[in-house]
Amino acid sequence: MSVKTFLVTGGAGFIGSAVVRHLIEHTAHNVVVLDKLTYAGNLNSLTSVAASVRYQFVQADICDPHKLQQIFSDYQPDIVMHLAAESHVDRSITGAGEFIQTNIVGTYTLLEAARAYWLQLDAAKQGAFRFHHISTDEVYGDLHGTDDLFTEATPYAPSSPYSASKAASDHLVRAWLRTFGLPTLVTNCSNNYGPYHFPEKLIPLMILNALAGKPLPVYGDGKQIRDWLYVEDHARALVLVATTGQVGETYNIGGHNEKQNIEVVTTLCALLEELAPHKPAGVAHFADLITYVKDRPGHDVRYAIDAGKIANELGWLPQESFETGLRKTVLWYLQNQSWWQAILDNTYQQKQAGQC
Q1: Active-site residue among 35, 61, 78, 138?
Q2: Which of 37, 124, 182, 265 shows a CA-CA span of 20 to 30 A to 44?
C-alpha cells in the first residue's frame, strides 16, 4: 500500500491517540493530528510518537471553517479519520449544548471542508480519498433481550443528548455520501478501555479512586451490561476500515466481552488486590469501597455488538480478551502515575497551553 497522509481529528483524545500511536508505530503513513485540546485532549498521550518526522500536530476547532480550509490546503490528506467529539454521557445530561456544537455542527463543518478539498483533487486522488467517521453503539439505544445484538441494520434510538448528537452526525456523514458523493465510511464501536483513558470514565475512575481509598460509585444496581473493547484492538480495526473498507458501508466494532458494570468493578478490585497490595490507610479490601448511587437519567440497560461483518469482510478480530486487556490496563495505570496525576491536578492543561 502506498504511503498516505491521515488527518486524525480528536487525535489527542483517548481513542484518537491510540490510532495515532498505531499509525506511527506500525505503519509507514504520515499523520496530522487536529485537536482543540479541550479537557479530554492530552498531548502527553502522544509523547511516544511526537518526535517522529511523520507526525504533525495542529491545534484547531472542527467548528472553524477557515482553519479547516487551511489545514486541508497545507497537509493534503488522503484519509480523514474523524474522532473529535464530546463523548461523556454524564456531561451531556448537565450541558448538552457543547455536544450539539461539537458533534453536530463540528461534523457538518468538517464534512464541508473535506468536500471542498475533495472536489478540487484530480480524478485519481478523488477516487482514493476517504472520510471515515468514528461513532458509537449508543446511537442504537439499548437492548432488553439477553440474546439480541446490535447489527449495522439496527434502527437508531438514542437515549442521551450525547448519543443523539452522535446519531445526528452519523446521518450527516451518510447524507454527504448520498447527496454529494463524498466517499465516506462509518464505524460504531462498543465501550473502549485501556491505557490513556481519561479518569472520568468508569474503568480509570475506579482504579484511581481505589488507589486513593475513595468510594467506587456504581449507578443503580450495577447490572447494566456493556461490551468492552480494548482500545488498541479498536485502533487496529479503525485503520483497517479506513484503508480497506468499502465506501458507503458501516462496520460495527465490538470486543465480544459483555460484562455487567458491577462485574467490571469487582474484577478491577480483585486485580488491584493482586497488583497493588499496599492499600490506602483504613482499606481492608478494595471491594469494600464499592458504593451504590442513584442511577443516572435515561441509563441504557444493555449494549452488545455483532461484529461479524468486520470479521467476515475485513478479517478483523480482537486480540485481547477482557481478562488480558483489563490486566494490561491496571498495570499501565500503576506504572504511569505521572500521566494521570497531571490530569488530577490539572497541570497537563497548563503545560499544553505553553506548548501551543
Answers
A1: 138
A2: 265
Residues 25 and 99: beta-carbon distance below 8 Å: no
C-alpha cell belonging to residue 299: 441509563
Q: Provide CATH code, domain 5-193+230-256+302-320+346-355.
A: 3.40.50.720
Annotated catalytic residue within 78, 137, 258, 300: 137
Residue 242 to residue 108: CA distance in whole angstroms? 20
Q: What is the pLDDT of residues 93-107, one digit of tens each?
A: 999 999 999 999 999
Q: Which of 47, 51, 54, 45 is nearest to 26 (CA)?
A: 54
Q: 137 an active-site residue?
A: yes
> Angle between the 231-244 and 14-26 helix axes, to the nearest 10 degrees?
70
Of 162, 251, 303, 333, catalytic: 162
Instruction: Give the model confidence (pLDDT) of 123-137 as tens digits.
Output: 999 999 999 999 999
Does the predicted TM-score (pTM) go above 0.90? yes
345: annotated active-site residue: no
